Amino acid sequence: MNPPPTSIVYIVGADPALHHALRGLLESVGLRTLACVDVAAFVAAYQPDWPGCLLLDARASGPDDPGALRRLREEGIDAPVIVLAEHASVAMVVTALRRGVLDFIEKPFNEQILLDGVHHALAVGAARRRARAQHQELLRRFDTLTAREQDVLRWVVAGLPNREIAETLNLSRKTVEIHRARVMRKMEAETLSQLIQMTVAIGILELYDSDG
């Protein structure tokens, strides 16, 4: 098995002096960096298989400009973003946070505050990757269910006992029990509570509720 890739901190902005200062600071604590002149260059250089975060100079895309964050969403990039800006007002910070920015650090920045922010962003990014991987795994398990097993799952999570499920689907109670056992096995759920949590995690329960 290959070792997990090293985290990478992307630095986005057109200021070479800022690039130099950030790279020197981050690499001094063992973090890998990659500098990009603008958001388009970052999108082209982004490595989705590598955990990381993004340091975005507000001058590359102002905090009141949603374009950068919209571009990231359109590209399916959910790396945590820290905006670096001079003289940030409360309104600017609130706007940026509402648009999905994780943190907002004023320049000139305190080195320790920036390092703490980067490490926090990397931890958040790692958590997002774990959640995404878990979500994909649950979807994979759900896709292994037959159409009939999905029907049984629908009524199980709706709270119907086996007898009522059998009547609803015009099956024998024994057949429902067999399907239910297969659902539990394929979804790798040990308890009904776990099964319900899984359906909530992948949006299946909400879908069933809206269909109901």
What features would you describe in this structure?
The protein has two domains: 126 residues, Response regulator (Rossmann fold); 68 residues, Arc Repressor Mutant, subunit A, CATH 1.10.10.10. Helix content is 58%, strand content 13%. The protein has a five-stranded parallel β-sheet, with helices on both faces. The longest helix is centred in the middle third of the chain and has 33 residues. The chain is elongated, with a radius of gyration of 23 Å. The two termini are 45 Å apart. The model has no long low-confidence stretch (mean pLDDT 87).
Number of strands: 5
- Report Rg: 23 Å
The CATH class designation of the largest domain is: Alpha Beta
The CATH topology assignment of the largest domain is Rossmann fold
Mean pLDDT reading: 87
The secondary-structure class comes to alpha/beta
SSE ordering: EHEHEHEHEHHHHHH
**In whole angstroms, how far apart are the ends?**
45 Å
Low-confidence regions: none
At the fourth level of CATH, the homologous superfamily of the largest domain is Response regulator
Shape: elongated
Search tags:
about 210 residues; Arc Repressor Mutant, subunit A
Entry summary:
The chain is an alpha/beta fold and 212 residues long.
Topology, element by element:
Layout: E1 8-12, H1 16-28, E2 32-36, H2 39-45, E3 52-57, H3 67-74, E4 81-86, H4 90-98, E5 103-107, H5 111-143, H6 147-157, H7 162-169, H8 173-187, H9 192-201, H10 204-211
Parallel strand pairs: 1-2, 1-3, 3-4, 4-5
Helix pairs in contact: 6-8, 7-8
